[in-house]
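The material for today's practical consists of a large collection of protein records. Getting from the letters to the tokens is the skill we practise here. To make this concrete, we reproduce a full record directly below:
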Amino acid sequence: QVQLVESGGGLVQTGGNLRLSCAASGRTFASYAMGWFRQAPGKERECVARITPSGGTTYYADSVKGRFTISRDNAKNTVYLQMNSLKPEDTAAYYCAAGGSYTGIIWFREASYDYWGQGTQVTVSS
């Protein structure tokens, strides 16, 4: 069992930066791949980034590639999402999620993740 708690959301102007954190409970954090999802009002939840258990491989949605960076500190049971050059269209509730990591997994699908945080709101003003 893994419990996830996100923090770091807030209101920022276009072009600004934010860093989200997701703290995980449990001793098995390092065995999980971690993802960051977001959901804007009226839209489906989408995966914006994923990192493998060791942190050696990352994946990004095209919409955030080059602007967002996912990282993790397994000693601190924490995963981060550094968001730079924010745009109004990045406004959403952001969720972290933990899931398995195996060959062929579809990294951007919600079904690939077993545990979810409660979310943190990011609002980018124009």
Observations:
- The chain has a mean pLDDT of 96.
